[in-house]
Fibronectin type-III domain-containing protein (Cryptosporangium minutisporangium), 143 residues
Amino acid sequence: MTRHAGIGRDMPHSFVVLDEVRPVRYVRVTAGHLPFGGAFAVSGLRVFGLGSGQAPTEVTPRATRVDGRQALIEWDAAHDAQGYNVRYGLNPEKLYRSWLVYEQTDLDLRALNAEADYWVAVDAFDENGITPGRPVPIQRRPS
């Protein structure tokens, strides 16, 4: 059984939540009667869930300011990670800006304000979950 406010109604942006967790391999989408004999079409189907394994290991970045507006962020690859979310900001509690990267373990970040000090964290993710990284300061090179 599912919780869905619009069962039996046209809900082009509906959000369906299963009552219980269940492993699935395929999702079937069916359509009932379509007006004027129209063709059934799906655009933007998204299915959320978690795998049954362990999330990737934690990643600790090394971050160095290259110049006033640029920093090089590097980290060691997490085993089985599909990608990384590099979060950064002016406060370690407020890392509101981010870059999503796949198949790489570095980022040439060219979006900084020249006089501001920044913090960065790298979250590793895969189908089993997200492992948040701890924020570290972006180090300035000695003058």
